[in-house]
Design a protein that fits this description.
Blueprint (H helix, E strand, L loop, with lengths): L1 E9 L2 E8 L6 E5 L10 H9 L3 E5 L17 H13 L5 E6 L1 H11 L6 E5 L7 H12 L8 H11 L16 E3 L5 E3 L10 H10 L1 H6 L5 E6 L7 H10 L4 E5 L6 H4 L1 H15 L3 H4 L1
Parallel strand pairs: 3-4, 3-5, 5-6, 6-9, 9-10
Antiparallel strand pairs: 1-2, 2-4, 7-8
Helix pairs in contact: 2-3
Length: 285
């Protein structure tokens, strides 16, 4: 159903994506969160293709199988430029679906001229709760020496996400890990990705409100994890002030990693929104 493709987004730097569906069909571009990989969207990608959509699911720069950009290469502007480069090659209307960093990337790209037909933001707003963002950062920066076993990785995830049942499929964790020459497991992203001050990142995120202003005339869905510590009512209200027509889909029992926590509910909510505002070729037929 999916083929792996490499996109050169700037000289010497390319991104890896899974691409599938009928060429020319309405296209959904999936963007994972910081520290994740495109495998976060595996189930969603299959469901979208089965529903008649074309799908592009890519690893962000410095993540998964995509090239590392090194120090200074991970500004939100760089991520947005990557998205625009990928979208330029699509000969069909596009919908953007972005979780956390992916959602911020989408808003920045919209502010800079990208015009999707619809936009879905997954547990991200331009003004998130700072403590929730810092908690994510602390988790990502923990254990720079890596993990000796996959069970240690599973334990760390369970401690970070106590509301999620601990995974029994530790082999599945390998999609988000890389094994060093010393045999230890580390997360599959460039350590330089976290090289900037968190206040700089929060300031960049705050500026994505301009992308929301530009998107005021397109259908926008905000998917929230009801156990998330990143989105609160204050941040949601600020975004709704700019996007009064914005729809909200709340997922009970999910934290910031909504698709991973409640994949079934997430996929159902996303597909229902797209079916109304961005019908697939199958729906049109």
């Amino acid at each position: 159903m999916m083929q792996t493709r490499r996109y050169e987004v700037e000289a010497g730097l390319s991104l890896v994506a899974d691409v599938g569906g009928t060429p020319g069909a309405p296209c959904v571009i999936l963007m994972h969160g910081g520290g994740q990989t495109r495998y976060s969207w595996m189930a969603a990608g299959k469901i979208l293709i089965a529903a008649g959509y074309q799908v592009i699911n890519f690893d962000a720069r410095g993540h998964g199988e995509s090239d590392w950009a090194g120090a200074g290469g991970y500004s939100l502007g760089k991520h947005a430029a990557d998205l625009r480069a990928i979208a330029q090659g699509v000969d069909a209307p596009i919908a953007l679906v972005g979780a956390s960093l992916g959602g911020a990337t989408a808003l920045r790209a919209v502010a800079e001229g990208l015009r999707p037909a619809t936009l879905a933001l997954v547990d991200i707003v331009p003004d998130p709760h700072p403590e929730g963002v810092r908690r994510i950062r602390a988790f990502m920066q923990a254990r720079p020496e890596g993990y000796e076993t996959l069970d240690e990785v599973a334990e760390a995830i369970a401690n970070y996400n106590p509301h999620r049942k601990r995974t029994q499929d530790t082999d599945g964790l390998l999609r988000n890990l890389r094994k060093g020459e010393n045999g230890r497991y580390r997360w599959h992203w460039d350590p330089a990705f976290l090289g900037r001050e968190i206040d700089v990142e929060l300031a960049e995120l705050s500026q994505t409100i301009e992308g929301a202003r530009v998107a005021a005339d397109i259908p926008v869905l905000l998917i929230r994890g009801m156990s998330s510590d990143v989105i609160d009512e204050r941040g949601t209200a600020k975004l709704r002030d700019v996007l009064p027509r914005m729809e909200i889909f709340d997922v009970e029992g999910a934290g910031h990693m909504v698709a991973g926590d409640r994949n079934d509910a997430f996929n159902a909510g996303l597909l229902e929104f797209l079916s109304r505002h961005f019908p697939s070729a199958m729906k049109k037929d």
